[in-house]
Write a structure and sequence with these properties.
four-stranded antiparallel β-sheet, 2 domains, binds zinc ion, alpha+beta, two-stranded antiparallel sheet, 289 residues, Muramoyl-pentapeptide Carboxypeptidase, domain 2, 11 helices
C-alpha cells in the first residue's frame, strides 16, 4: 500500500512502536510524549516534542522524564485517550474541521489526519467528487449515547443482553472500543452502503475512494465480510481510517486494553463473551492492518 508518510508522523509512529516493543512499554515512559496534557502547555503540539526516529530508547525515556509527569500518570492518560475519555477541543493534537470539509459544528480530527484529508479533499474536488465528513472524533460519552440509545430501542425485540449487544455491534462500537475515539477515522457523505453502490448517489465517491484514498493514507477498515475478515462489524463503505496514525494506535490499544476494561455503559458485561478486542477492534480488513 502506498501512503504519504510525513517525517514527523513517521517518527512518532516509530516511537510508539519502540514503546510497544521495548522495555519502556512497562513504564509507559514514551506514552507521555504522546499524550501528557498535564506536562504540556496549552497549544503545544505533540509534534514539538517529536525526536528523530534514530534515537535510542533510553533517549526517549530521558525526554519523557523531562516532562515531570510520573510514568504511571502518563500511561493512564494515554489509556484514557485510547478509550475516548478526553476532550478533543482541549487537546493540542486535535484541530477543528469546519467548512467545506463538514457542515456540522464541533467536529475534530488529529492534525495529521486532517492535513491528509484536506489534500485528499482537494484532489477529489478536481475530479468533481465532493467528500463530506459526517462524523469524525467521538468521545466515550458520545459513543455511550449512540450505544445506549440502541440498547434501549432494541430492548423489547432483543431482551437477551448478549444478543442485543451483538445486534448493536453490527454497525456500532462499544464505548471505549471505537476507532472514532482516536481522531484518525471519519465517516463520509452518508451512513448507508446502498448510497455508495451502483445507482447510489455516492457511487462515484466510493469508486474514487477505492482508487485514490490509499494515496493519502486512508483505508476502509470495515470491508465486506469474507474468509479474510470473518468477524467484526458489517461492511461500512463510508468509514475511512488514516493509517499512518491509526495503525500504531491499534497496536497500542491491543497491548493496553482488555475486554474487561470496557465498562461504564449498559451491556458492558457482555464485552468478554463477545471478544470485543479480538473480533471487533482487531476485526478489520487485512488491507488496513
Ligand atoms: Zn465510522
Amino acid at each position: 500500500m502506498r501512503v504519504k508518510f510525513t517525517a514527523h508522523v513517521g517518527a512518532w509512529a516509530l516511537l510508539l512502536l519502540l514503546a510497544a516493543c521495548g522495555p519502556e512499554a512497562e513504564t509507559g515512559a514514551v506514552f507521555g510524549k504522546y499524550h501528557a496534557p498535564a506536562a504540556r502547555k496549552v497549544g503545544q503540539s505533540l509534534n514539538d516534542t517529536i525526536v528523530p526516529p534514530d534515537l535510542q530508547d533510553n533517549k526517549s525515556v530521558e525526554i519523557a522524564s523531562n516532562s515531570g509527569a510520573p510514568a504511571s500518570q502518563m500511561f493512564a492518560e494515554t489509556l484514557h485517550y485510547l478509550l475516548g475519555q478526553f476532550e478533543p477541543a482541549r487537546h493540542a493534537d486535535f484541530a477543528t474541521l469546519g467548512k467545506p470539509y463538514t457542515d456540522k459544528p464541533d467536529m475534530y480530527l488529529r492534525r495529521e489526519a486532517l492535513a491528509a484529508f484536506k489534500k485528499m479533499y482537494a484532489a477529489a474536488k478536481k475530479e468533481g467528487i465532493v467528500l463530506k465528513i459526517v462524523s469524525a472524533t467521538r468521545t466515550f460519552a458520545q459513543q455511550k449515547n449512540i450505544w445506549e440509545g440502541k440498547w434501549s430501542r432494541f430492548a423489547a425485540e432483543t431482551p437477551d443482553p448478549q444478543a442485543r449487544a451483538q445486534r448493536i455491534l453490527e454497525y456500532s462500537a462499544m464505548p471505549g472500543a471505537s476507532r472514532h475515539h482516536w481522531g484518525t477515522d471519519i465517516d463520509l457523505n452518508d451512513l448507508n452502503n446502498a448510497s455508495f453502490e451502483a445507482g447510489g448517489r455516492f457511487e462515484k465517491v466510493y469508486s474514487w475512494l477505492r482508487t485514490h484514498a490509499h494515496e493519502y493514507g486512508f483505508c476502509q477498515p470495515y470491508s465486506a465480510r469474507s474468509a479474510e475478515r470473518p468477524n467484526g462489524y458489517n461492511e461500512e463503505k463510508w468509514h475511512w481510517s488514516y493509517l499512518p496514525v491509526a495503525t500504531p494506535l491499534l497496536r497500542q490499544y491491543s497491548q493496553s486494553v482488555q475486554d474487561g476494561m470496557l465498562s461504564g455503559f449498559q451491556g458492558a458485561p457482555t464485552a468478554r463473551n463477545l471478544s470485543i478486542l479480538k473480533h471487533y477492534v482487531l476485526g478489520i480488513s487485512p488491507a488496513c492492518q
